[in-house]
Amino acid sequence: MAMDDGSREGSLNRVIGLPLLVFYGVGVTIGAGIFALMGEILRIAGDHAPLTFLIAGLIAGATGFSYSRLGAVYPVAAGEAVYVKVGLGPFWGRLVGLGVAATGIVSSAVIALSFAGYLGSLVALPQWLLALSVIAVLTLIAFAGVRMSVGFAAVITVLETGTLIVVCFAGAPLVFEAGVAPKLFSLPASGAVWGLVLSASLIAFFAFVGFEDIVNMAEETRDPQRNLPLAIILTLLITIAIYIVVSVIAIAAPDREALTSSQAPLADLFASITGRSGAPIAAMATIAMVNGILVQIVMSSRVLYGMARENLMPGFLAHVHEKRRTPSTATLLVGAIIAILAFAVPLVSLAKLTSIVILMVFTLVNLSLWRIGSRPEAPAGLRNWRLWGLGGAMLSAFLLVPELIAVVS
């Protein structure tokens, strides 16, 4: 597949370097979920909460490595759709691309409503107006240019990641108290406890979902063959480290039980270990919602643009704004669909299907690595790792089974 230097007419603007790409990756991975997820993980896994995040990170990393191998060989927008198209055929490629775009659009609609609900308790404005306003503003930012979009997301990433680091520093003295260290290095003592840890790990796994969106920025990234794999790996390493440290602080908290039933566990954690208000932490969780909407708009529009370039979607979606060098038609369409979904469609059932779609995409991407790498003409970077793809496909399919059972039952 020929590389695009970003200069020809109709191409995107190749302006993103490795640091900004990592900021984008961390921002799309560390979202509002971790601010609310810790209590549930703590309730199920107890002292083994850090282990659950390590296991979940390794599970995500298995597929992350497959993405990094394929992204280096096929550095294009709509990455997953292209990988699966090459590996399994156009039908599966189109299905995967639409699934990826749909998850971004649906999650953005859900987050926009959640954000409007929270903000509506602070300002006397209708929820529909607040939701529509945030969708419109973020769509315009995405339309304005990728440097502005990713730069804006990077600023929020610094704020939300910085908030987690503040929580870690505030709780660090607790880790050195008597009795805490042995908890950090103890393994589950029985099969039943291991079962709880693995169950919690499946929940924690979805706190890592988002790293895969990095590949859809390929056509706006400088030196994508080098920077895409590095950004994926660095994003996962940074995320694993932050999640484990936060969970360590959580198990050392003096009022740990209260966190397991809290609607804002990290805000309550900060309040319990500092004696100060947890409101700033809760506010940062809300700001993280804004980041989640923006990066999903950027991602979904690039997927539709890339699919149009690969003849998997109508050609008008491949239109690039002459001045902004952004996929303008796809961006505006994504923003409009998010707004419609937020007000016209019951989202609960759609949101439940998001995790299933993601695991199906992971399964097919890993399977594509195996299929492409098994061909005689395959690049060495894929041929040498084809069995990794097969293993990743089996792991993703294994994780998919309980999700399907939960929906059917």
Write the layout of secondary structure elements.
Blueprint: H1 18-29, H2 32-45, H3 49-73, H4 79-88, H5 90-120, H6 127-144, H7 146-175, H8 180-185, H9 191-205, H10 224-252, H11 256-260, H12 265-274, H13 279-309, H14 328-344, H15 348-373, H16 380-383, H17 386-408
Characterise the protein shown here.
The chain has 409 residues and is mainly α. The chain has one domain (18-346): Amino acid/polyamine transporter I (Up-down Bundle), CATH 1.20.1740.10. The chain is built from 17 helices and no strands. The chain has helices at 18-29, 32-45, 49-73, 79-88, 90-120, 127-144, 146-175, 180-185, 191-205, 224-252, 256-260, 265-274, 279-309, 328-344, 348-373, 380-383, 386-408. α1 crosses α10 (224-252) and α4 crosses α15. The longest helix has 31 residues, at 90-120.
